[in-house]
Automatic annotation (TrEMBL):
Keywords (A to Z) from UniProt: Cell shape, Glycosyltransferase, Membrane, Transferase, Transmembrane, Transmembrane helix
Protein name (record): FtsW/RodA/SpoVE family cell cycle protein
Species this chain originates from: Jeotgalibacillus haloalkalitolerans
Taxonomic placement: Bacteria, Bacillati, Bacillota, Bacilli, Bacillales
Localisation: Membrane
One Gene Ontology molecular-function label: glycosyltransferase activity
Catalytic activity, EC: 2.4.1.129
One Pfam family, short name: FTSW_RODA_SPOVE
Record membrane topology: Multi-pass membrane protein
Annotated PANTHER family: CELL CYCLE PROTEIN (PTHR30474), PEPTIDOGLYCAN GLYCOSYLTRANSFERASE MRDB (PTHR30474:SF1)
Chain segments annotated as transmembrane: 12-31, 51-67, 79-101, 121-138, 150-167, 173-189, 196-216, 291-309, 321-338, 358-376
Enzyme class, broadest EC rank: transferase
């Protein structure tokens, strides 16, 4: 085995460089978003705090690189159990510790530290456990058949279903959708036969298509099963300007801000359209207004480069466990980006999902960097054997 690699050669500098670019883009966007009088009254510089959170995240990544992926595989169930305990605590602890924020009990409130959203970390804990479950199953069932694949699908459903149910009780629709994306992403690379997956996904597609038909053409039926406020969310997405003063206010202002930026934008801190929560979930509207189509394209390109690099890492690794971890992280980030930008431009309904690595938020940012820390660990502990073309992770 070749152990002569210098310390710096074991660091994933491509991923590190991308994170630095994301940090610059995030701090600039948040710095501009907080120029309105609303933020001046709060008295908090969110841009500086975001930079500090990034630094804490970089330290966390450095600590995570100390452990190799085999150790993360061994810790999988402990991390998962810890995350489940935190999610249960949100449902049973008093409001003094678990405040009601934005219509959900999703955060712990600690002195000095501030708010902490455990579901952001549970995403990565679930990815690690799903990777262990799938890798262990495939190692045990070398000769695959429909019965073993069905058993694997049941185990995946159980592991992802527990946090899904707990998050539904908060409730937090956006995070629930992220867990679905993670689960689907890992299932697609798990080796389960398409004889089982095709009818499953077809059934889901039929249900989704039927729901869309009912929303568009049979509103009378939808009113029997959904509350009025839930239907208003759907209709305000489909026809936002009819609800511009109410449920669709954020959406209409976000689209106005992005459209007003045109090609080159209005310039740094030269916004004119007020968008609520523009430093968190609607940060892309700030980018679109101030930096225009060019600036928005740069941000989207950064995400493309990030997903491309993570995919490259997944293709290069020889460990099944590592592949499934990469698949989970890629699915998580891809869905976050697609959903956040999509809801900002009316492509998708608003679900309150932040733009990863750009939106302000300690739990979201640290949670994403925690997931990416696993990729840094893969590179750092990558071992190359002499006289062989095979690598061992």
């Amino acid at each position: 085995m070749n152990t002569n690699k210098h310390f710096s050669d074991r660091i994933d500098w491509t991923l590190a460089s991308l994170l630095i670019l994301f940090m610059i883009a995030s701090v600039l966007a948040i710095s501009s978003a907080q120029t309105t009088g609303q933020y001046a009254a709060i008295g908090t510089n969110f841009a500086i705090r975001q930079g500090m959170i990034y630094l804490v995240g970089f330290v966390l990544i450095g600590m995570m690189m100390y452990f190799d992926m085999d150790q993360y595989r061994k810790m999988a169930w402990f991390l998962y159990g810890f995350g489940i305990v935190l999610l249960v605590g949100l449902l049973v602890l008093p409001e003094s510790l678990v405040p009601y924020i934005n219509g959900a009990y999703s955060w712990y409130n600690f002195p000095v530290i501030g708010t902490l959203q455990p579901s952001e970390f549970m995403k990565t804990f679930t990815i690690i456990v799903l990777a262990r479950v799938v890798a262990g199953h495939n190692e045990s069932f070398v000769n695959r058949d429909l019965k073993s694949d069905l058993w694997l699908l049941a185990k995946i459903g159980l592991v992802s279903g527990i946090p899904f149910i707990l998050i539904n009780e908060q409730p937090d629709l956006g995070t629930m959708l992220v867990f679905i994306a993670i689960t689907v992403g890992i299932i697609l690379v798990s080796g389960i036969t398409w004889k089982l997956l095709l009818p499953t996904f077809t059934s889901v597609a039929v249900i989704a298509s039927s729901a869309i038909y009912l929303v568009l053409f049979r509103q009378d039926i939808m009113e029997r099963f959904f509350e009025d406020y839930q239907l208003r969310r759907i209709y305000s997405w489909l026809d936002p300007y009819s609800y511009a003063s109410g449920d669709a206010y954020q959406l209409t202002t976000a689209m106005s801000a992005i459209g007003s930026g045109e090609i080159f934008g209005k310039g740094y801190q030269d916004r004119q359209v007020y968008v609520p929560d523009n430093h968190t979930d609607f940060i892309f509207a700030v980018v679109g207004e101030e930096y225009g189509f060019i600036g928005a394209s740069v941000v989207v390109s950064l995400f493309f480069l990030l997903i491309y690099h993570l995919t490259k890492v997944a293709l290069e690794t020889k460990s099944q466990f590592n592949v499934y971890v990469c698949a989970g992280v890629i699915s998580m980030i891809t869905f976050h980006v697609f959903q956040n930008i999509g809801m900002t431009i009316q492509l998708l309904p608003i679900t309150g999902i932040p733009l990863p690595l750009i939106s302000y938020g300690g739990s979201s940012l640290i949670g994403t960097l925690f997931a990416l820390g696993l990729l840094f660990s893969m590179k750092f502990h990558h071992r190359t054997y002499m006289f062989s073309n095979e690598d061992d992770d």
